[in-house]
Amino acid sequence: MIEVPAVTLFLRPAPDKPTLHVDDPTFFRQQLAVLVVVTVQTVRYLAGWEPSREVRSSYCCVMPNELTKEKTMRRLLIPLAAISLILAGCAGSTNAAAQVVPTGGTPMSNTIAVSGTGEVTGTPDTLIIDLGVQVLRPSVGEATGEAARLAQAVIDALKTEGVAENDIQTTNYSIWPEYDYRNDNQTLRGYRVSNTVSAKIRELDKAGEVIDAATAAGGNDAVVNGIRFDLEANGALIIAAREAAWNDAKAKAEQLAALAEVRLGKAVSISEASSPTQPPILYAEAAAAFDGATPIQAGQASVSVVVTVQFAIEG
Questions:
Q1: Within a 13 Å sphere around the CA of 14, how many CA atoms are in the beta-carbon half?
Q2: Residue 70, class by beta-carbon neighbours within 10 Å (0-12 exposed, 13-18 middle, 19+ buried)?
């Protein structure tokens, strides 16, 4: 709907006219032609001419009754002429814009699109361990009570060894019946309760001692599901990996431009994805039987960054 002084024009395509997408250059040309037709027919109407049946069937023109034709014509012509010039400019620029704006995720024209990868390594600063207890007792009440006592002992041992309370989180609590199947008979053995937590150990040189203390607190019902290392203070590594990824992408683009005998321009589009990558390190339950502290090796952790860049082609 286009608002102009003292008049409202409603442009409605006829039912038999095809629908065009706004990205289609024909859309702007069609709308420009429609506005020109409406302008001409309005002026002719104000001069005493009745619009043709074809025009009335395709577009509705609602004219004011309270104004005279002479005043309405003077107020209409200037706004309609200005709008016609604007639409004409849009129609003339649509073809050029369509060549550079990406549609549907495809690369822009006249560009070179490349991906670069950067990876740096560092020493992990955090160990994350999943441990707890699994208790089998004849009744649910006995199983839940014993599991609660042992799980609390494990948590207390972690805290005593310096693990912060905010770094301890319950990750699983479950109860299920356990059966023996012999000679086609099903016999209830009892009820098993599992209660495990995830704990972050930030002092890696004490990790073995912390693990030993926690598993000892759980006794014969202690379980350790695994450990993994993390690099939480990885800001400097990400910066270094990002720079390496950029250099990799630019080197590829420069090579492609040289092979194609074109001149490489500035980057017009950049996207990034980063992820920590380190091999999982598992902790065997049998290790707790050693006399000394359980040996833990942090190894190296790596941070990887991938950048996707589109460079303009100049000249």
A1: 11
A2: exposed
Segments in the chain forming alpha helices (H): 25-46, 53-58, 69-98, 140-160, 207-218, 235-260
User: Do 197 and 246 belong to one domain?
Assistant: no
Nearest to 114 by CA among 291, 311, 313: 311
Q: Give the count of domains, the chain.
A: 3
Query: Is residue 106 one of the residues assigned to a domain?
Result: no
Single pTM value for the model: 0.53
**Do residue 117 and residue 133 come from a single domain?**
no
Give me the tens of pLDDT residue by residue for the chain, a chain 315 residues long: 444 444 434 444 444 544 444 445 555 566 666 666 666 666 565 555 555 555 444 444 444 444 455 555 555 555 555 555 554 554 444 333 323 334 344 556 799 999 999 999 988 889 999 999 999 999 999 999 999 999 999 999 999 999 999 999 999 999 999 999 888 888 999 999 999 999 999 999 999 999 999 999 999 999 999 999 988 888 889 999 999 999 999 999 999 999 999 999 999 999 999 876 554 444 433 334 334 578 888 888 888 999 999 999 986
Are 92 and 16 within one domain?
yes
Segments forming the whole domain that contains residue 56: 2-98
**Considering just the CA atoms, what is the radius of gyration of the chain in Å?**
37
My answer on whether 219 and 283 are in the same domain is no
Boundary of a domain, candidates 228, 254, 275 = 228
The two tokens of residue 286 are: 């049998």
Residues 197 and 259 occupy one common structural domain: no
Is there a domain that residue 41 lies in?
Answer: yes
Q: Cα–Cα distances in Å, from 113 out to 97, 189, 263?
A: 19, 64, 14
Asked if residue 47 belongs to a domain, the reply is yes
Phi-psi region of 242 (alpha: psi -120 to 50; beta: other; left: phi over 0): alpha
